[in-house]
Amino acid sequence: MSGPAKVAVLISGRGSNMQALAEAAGDAYEIVVVASDKPGAPGLAWAIQHRLPTFALSPKGIGKPVFEAALDGALREAGAEWIALAGYMRLLSDGFVAKWRGRIVNIHPSLLPKYKGLDTHARAIDAGDAAGGCSVHVVTEELDGGEVLGQREVAILPGDTPETLAERVLAAEHQLYPAVLKEFVRR
Ligand code: GAR
Known about the structure:
By secondary structure, the protein is α/β, with parallel strands linked by helices.
């Protein structure tokens, strides 16, 4: 296929990974829409300022099937071929994952398969791990369970709190995600 791969980025919050992906876009991929389940997500304002198309819809009151049908429609209308989850904090249904099988990636703040789910940094510190980190993986029906495409390790330092570790891991995420996405969309 010619031209950059068309990527939709899904966010729920500040969207710093989405910003890193946007800043690294170019020949390999372009962001065709930034979508959110939180109409007030700060990342949407950044996307609008940077002239990226956005789509925002809350599932509250409409139910997951209606929400996901609208999301799916918006992504397809934008021409998306791939989906990058970037701090998207809502589980996608099995049906949605099946429709985009093998074309959704996620960034997770742990060295998978360790610490799937939430509170990853606190769990790594409490376990006495020497390092935490981040992983980019393919999204499947299993939470944080798909093929790992790339990882970055971040040393846990004496006195680290979940917050201080999260900050350094986030910087690693911003390096890792664009690099892995560029490779992934070549598949
Ligand atoms: C990131 O640390 C990301 O890895 C994590 O949320 C943060 C979002 O930050 N994602 C998850 O925990 C997914 N389960 P961002 O909105 O600034 O990109």
